[in-house]
Known about the structure:
Elements: E1 5-17, H1 22-30, E2 35-45, E3 49-58, H2 63-72, E4 76-87
Antiparallel strand pairs: 1-3, 1-4, 2-3
Amino acid sequence: xxxxxxxxxxxxxxxxxxxxxxxxxxxxxxxxxxxxxxxxxxxxxxxxxxxxxxxxxxxxxxxxxxxxxxxxxxxxxxxxxxxxxxxxxxxx
Length: 92
C-alpha cells in the first residue's frame, strides 16, 4: 500500500466448500491485527460449494494476510469487488 494510505474496507467474492463454517472463517479473519469487523453472506449454494461475500473493515487491513487466511480455509477468492482506502492521520 502507498505510504500514508491504509486499506479500510475490502469486499471479496469467494467460493468455499460446504464443510467450511462461515463463523470459523469470519473469526479467523477478524483475529488478525488491523481488522475491526468481518461479515460473510452466503450468496449462492451449489451441490458441493457456496459462493460467499466477505466484507472486512478495519484501520489498516493487510489484504495479503486475508488471502492467506482464506486459503487456509480451502476457500478460493474469485474477485475483489470493493476497496476503500484512506489517508492515515499523522499527529505531530
